[in-house]
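Model it.
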Amino acid sequence: MEIEGSQMMVVNCYPACPEPELTLGMPPHSDYGLLTLLLQDEVKGLQIQHRGSWVTVQPIPGSFVVNVGDHLEIFSNGKYKSVVHRVLVNSCESRISVASLHTLPINSTIRPSPKLISEENPRRYMDTDFATFLNYISSCEPKSKNFLESRKLY
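Modeled.
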């Protein structure tokens, strides 16, 4: 059985910044796909949003950070939660990370699994696809909420 999907590698370099309070390395966002594997160096900078606060993810040498993406939250009908995260820069050290993003083929429609929808657990997300995502990020809406929020039914 052949399993198809999409995989993208992203290398991020965040140079030391003399005034780190004036910028973000990467603004708050969640990842579009199913899962992201992140290999980061030993320099702090990655933060996740947890209960309304930003929490620094302590780098562990030789390990991967695994982020649940928007597609997995939609497919699981909310059982697994996509992680909102950002990256801060600092004034002393550069930071490097390599992200490997994994998802279904780019032309796939993502929807909640019918096995996870019931009277007690109603459908929570609209169907989505890559074209919908591209339309969303080119609109003004991303300034007020993330893509996943735009797909919620209630």
